[in-house]
Amino acid sequence: MLLHRLTEYATRAEADDTLPPPYYRPKRIHWILQLNEDGTAVRLVNRRPAKGEKPLETTAPYAYRSGTMPPPYLMVDTAQYVLALPKQTPGKPVTERAVEEGRRRRDAYADLLLAWANAAPNDPYTTAVRTFVTTGVLHGLKAPEEMTAADNIALMAHDHTWLHMLPSVREAWAASVRSRKSGKGAIGLCLVCGKDGELLSTIPESIKSGAIPTAGRGRDAQLVSINASAQGRGGALQLVNTPVCERCGGRAMAALNLLLASDRNRRRATDSVTVWWTRELVDDLFGTLDTATDAAVARLLQSLHEHPDPATAERIDPNAYYSLTLGLNNARAVVLDWLDIPVGRLRNHLGAWFEHHRVYDGWNQSYRYFPLWRIVLAAGRWDAKANKYVSGSVPKGLEQELLHAALTRGPVPARLLPHLLQRIRADRRVDPPRVALLRLALHPNRKDHQVTAPADRLDSTQLDPGYLCGRVFAVLEAIQYAALPDVKATIGDKFFGTAMTAPAAVFKTLRLGANAHLKRLRRDNGAAYTALTRRLAEAFAAFDPHEGIPVLLTTEQQAKFVLGYEQQRAADFAARAAHKKNKDQAANGAAAEAE
């Protein structure tokens, strides 16, 4: 199914003229070897970029090569193949074996050039290339001192034509790769296109090095690699149990590499990458996750409210959406996730993602929505000195799990809630992105559109003991702030961790301390005293008279403690903002009347 969808995308990319030729890949060109008109002389041009300069890049012949005698590329290859420049280990002299290997690779490169010249006798550049090889010009070239064995060298004609882009070169290179990668002439039914054809023994093109993020050494990776009998079904090696014809295999990998190179169609994480595409062009749905603009989120929420049932949304927009997440295990690509759903259902899932995590901003009296990367970052460790989250401190694999939850409307991983609570206690940091994570983690069933999420703002009807404890703690902290605006160490700094796990141990002490603060407020700020006293009484009155303040809170109750604490603060901010607005309006009205 995956290869089938990739070949579909290859057809569309080919129509848009964005798909590279078969077995071609973007390469950086460090040197240009320009032939004169008859091929008797050449000019070596240094195209290595200076600092800050954009490198020269072009699509050039490529196929995965390995083993003790890796074959050359046609027209564009490294200095080790073009000029027999031996590979040298830093700090060590060049060995005779490396010199011999360089000569062997140059001879193989020359043979490949002659094979093309013999196969395309009518090409206008054939004579020059044949002369360049057979008269000793190629073998007489010396590499400059600044050149390295890994530098790419491209052949260019006298009129500045890239020789590797000639139609005859493309055909010759494709034929060369087919002869090396096909299954020894095996003919059979291709699982992708459903037609009989010559089957591949291995996928001819690999995933480009660096396309999949990894903490280790970057290298080309194979999407399908079965080179040991223990790995294949029935002991079969390579593609025996996955019959794919040469055309489908090459086009599928060309499409995948094209997607991996596109900023618009990929999302890179710490140790994985996700690419997405659709059967027909649509707006950038996937990008909304990391660029949650007000307009984009509003469109998704409108779609969700119009069609809350995912099945209904699917019928409204049946266009197909595909996403593929890849990781890396040495030189093998690992398929971490594959999604094939209608676009209408995806809109529903993304709309639900934003509605289920939104946080009410009391001061601005609006809702806040967060990009996925920021929500993921909030699961990491907070550095109070640097005033930011520590890069790399997010649990391994969590980003991919949250991405899957967003795209499928599935639950967030069970490990998130205890981890997040531990981080909140250790960091003493509660901010809107962490509250957004708590709302997602506390949702009882995100897949059922009839099951509601925890309230996104203060819920006075919520009688959960943890939620009530959080509200009480927020009011007690507000009383301290109002009485002592310059206090350096608040009750939040001292008692938040204990209050969210064992509230009965500290609430009596905090309530007695609040009496002194209220007494000061009654003397200095009567309005604040009246409002906070009423708020505190209402919060305490909501507890069950028989149960009272709980001794210990469960994990879920601890999460609701944080939610109640933050939502009570947001409601207080909203009340203060409304009071300030009314006060300013009254003052402006009085000033206008005085004029």
Q: Number of helical segments?
A: 18
Q: Report the count of strand segments.
A: 16
Which strand order does the major sheet show? 3-2-6-5
Radius of gyration: 33 Å
Helix content: 40-55%
Describe the largest sheet: 4 strands, mixed
Q: Tell me, briefly, the overall form.
A: elongated
Uncertain stretches = none
Give me the secondary-structure category. Answer: alpha+beta
Looking at the chains present, what oligomeric state does this protein adopt? Answer: single chain
Mean pLDDT: 89
Fraction in beta strands:
5-15%
Q: Kindly report how far apart the N and C termini lie.
A: 77 Å
Give the topology, please.
Layout lengths: L1 H14 L8 E5 L2 E5 L6 E5 L10 E5 L14 E3 H4 L13 H24 L6 H9 L17 E5 L10 H15 E8 L6 E5 L45 H15 L5 E3 L4 E6 L15 H13 L3 H7 L3 E10 L2 E11 H15 L1 E3 L4 E3 L3 H6 L4 E2 L4 E2 L8 H11 L7 H12 L4 H11 L22 H19 L7 H9 L4 H21 L1 H16 L13 H40 L1
Parallel strand pairs: 2-6
Antiparallel strand pairs: 1-4, 2-3, 5-6, 7-8, 9-10, 10-11, 11-12, 13-14, 15-16
Helix pairs in contact: 1-6, 3-4, 7-9, 8-9, 9-11, 13-18, 14-15, 14-16, 14-17, 14-18, 15-16, 16-17
